[in-house]
Structure formats: structure tokens, C-alpha cells
Amino acid sequence: MSRKIFVNVCSQDLRRSIDFYAALGFTLVEEFTNEQAACLVLTDSIYVMAVTEGFFGETVTNGISTTGTQVVLALELDSREEVDEVADRALAAGGEKAKDPMDEGFMYGRSVLDPDGHHWELMWMSTDAT
Question: Taking every annotated instance into account, which residue ranges of this chain make up the domain VOC (predicted)?
């Protein structure tokens, strides 16, 4: 059975989040977007829901963390070059470098924080390594 994942991220500026994820190649889904949340699709099974802080707060029961990282979001890409391309687009779109690139030969990755501080690991791993 094929399943979809909807990653919900708290956004302090919804327009900024839409622009950031669009720069990474996500497509806005207008019919699931309003002034409180934006649905952005990367593949037929991966979606990001950028949700305003007020609306996000209504969906959680234990409050919104304002310090530290609660989750690391990892996205596998098709090549080392694509990792660099997406990371560079993320930085140009308002993201920040999270840490230095990681190169293990068979695996390569770069880390970025989106404009709201959500940690994304962009990675490629050789099919020979799996």
C-alpha cells in the first residue's frame, strides 16, 4: 500500500514559507491552501504543510517549542550534484547553513535550516551502499 506523509511545520510568515519551499521545487496545492496553512507537494507521497503559528498551536496539545530542534527532516536526493543544487537554492531562498557538508564517499549530505529554523538534511547515498 502506498502512503503519503504530510510534514507539518510551524510558520511565522506563511508567504515566506511558500516562497522558500517553492524555491526547493515544491509545488503549491491551491485547493488545500488558505490564510492559515499552505500545502506544498514534492512527490506523489511527500507533502509539507506550512501552518501559521496560531493554527499550529490549535493542533498540538503540548505547546509549541521555541528553542532547540524537535525533529530533523531528511530528504533523499538523486545525486551529490542535486544535494548541492537544492542546498544552494535553500540558502538563496532565505535558509541558513546548519552544519558543514558531510562526505563519506558512498553518502553525501548538506544541512540547512528553513526560515523558521526547521532542520533539513539533504542527502544522497550510493545504491551500492544499500
Answer: 3-125
Asked if 27 and 18 touch (Cβ cutoff 8 Å), the reply is: no
Counts for the chain of helices (H) and strands (E), in that order: 3, 8
Low-confidence ranges of the chain (pLDDT < 50): none
The structure's pTM equals 0.84
Question: What does the block give as the cell for 100?
Answer: 558543514
Angle between helices 14-23 and 80-92 (to 10 degrees): 150
Closest listed residue to residue 98, CA positions, set 114, 117, 113: 113
All structural domains of the chain, each given as residue ranges with its CATH number in brackets, are 1-64 (3.10.180.10), 66-130 (3.10.180.10)
